[in-house]
Amino acid sequence: MVPDDVPAALSYEAARDELVDVVRRLEQGGATLEESLALWERGEALARTCQAWLDGAQTRLDAVLGDRADD
Fold first, then answer.
1. In whole angstroms, what is the distance from residue 6 CA to residue 23 CA?
2. Cα torsion angle, 60, 65, 70, 71, sign
3. Between the CA atoms of 20, 48, 8 and 35, what dihedral angle is there, to the nearest 10 degrees?
4. Core-most of 8, 28, 39, 65, by most CB within 10 Å?
5. What is the CA radius of gyration of the chain?
6. Handedness of CA 26, 24, 51, 2 (dihedral sign)
7. What gap in Å lies between CA 60 and CA 12, rounded to an integer?
8. Among positive and negative, which fits the CA dihedral 43, 45, 49, 52?
9. Rounded Cα distance, 61 and 63, in Å
10. pTM higher than the cut 0.85
11. What are the residues whose beta carbons fall under 8 Å from the beta carbon of 70, sequence distance 6 or more?
């Protein structure tokens, strides 16, 4: 499940890479308060997207491993 504020077509890798960029920009400083807040909000949305991808992968792995345990 991808958060509403991040495009559903964004892959895990793309979301992760953009999140890394957001963190780098925040760590550099120099942005206005408004810009920093916008970056923070985007970073939070990207982090939720990454977590959703990871949760989905975990669910798929659990299903496969559960199927194997039934054999």
1. 17
2. positive
3. -50
4. 39
5. 16
6. positive
7. 15
8. positive
9. 5
10. no
11. none
